[in-house]
Amino acid sequence: MHRSWLAGHLEILLPLATDWATEQEKRVLDEGVALSKEEIADAITAGVQGPERVHVLRVDAIPSPTHPILKAACDAMNFLPTAPRGLTLGYGIFIRSDYGEDRHLLAHELAHTAQYERLGGILPFLRSYIFQCAMIGYHEAPLEQEADDIAERICGLGSACASRADAGALASVSLR
Ligand SMILES: [Zn+2]
Q1: What does the alpha-carbon distance between residue 154 and residue 148 come to, in Å, rounded to a whole number?
Q2: CA 83 → CA 28, 63, 99, 118, distances in Å?
Q3: Nearest-angstrom CA–CA distance, 14 and 18
């Protein structure tokens, strides 16, 4: 499976990825915690319209899909971090426990939530995100670069926490 294959089969992968992402978002909303006052302030700076809807679930390992087609797509696309620290699915944000207090990481993920809102929800976000990762690559994907820029702005330039290894939106969904 090749990047161009993925781009060409986006419409097959997309419903599977969206189902998975929707399930995972629900899990975070059910089991996670709402943002603190300080985190809400960062969410607003990141452009989130509904910061009170955001929940964060800290986990030992970021989940990834088990559906064979999604899994195959993930395995084939090894341009994403192998051990992501975060994953944002709409208003649900997974954060790996060992980065549980990393403001830069959360700011990056909140920027993705703002992108989901702006693009109109999980399916349209994933369409853009998978396409960008497939055609351009995870690190250069404009949605990733924007999230990095926003996190930098929130944490301040030159902050020690500037490296990126989240799962973006769906690192796990289709591409890792
Ligand atoms: Zn990201």
Answers
A1: 10
A2: 19, 10, 12, 27
A3: 6
Q: How confident is the model at residue 165 (pLDDT cuts 50, 70, 90)?
A: low
pLDDT in tens, 15-54: 999 999 999 999 999 999 999 999 999 999 999 999 999 9
Ligand 1 center–CA 166 separation, angstroms: 5
Taking the centre of ligand 1 as the mean of its atom positions, its distance from the CA of residue 112, in whole angstroms, is 7
pLDDT the model gives residue 119: 98
Expressed in angstroms and rounded, the spacing between residue 145 Cα and the centre of ligand 1 is 8
Ligand 1 center–CA 144 separation, angstroms: 5
Predicted TM-score (pTM) of this structure: 0.85
Q: Which residue has the tokens 């960008």?
A: 132
CA distance 110 to 65: 22
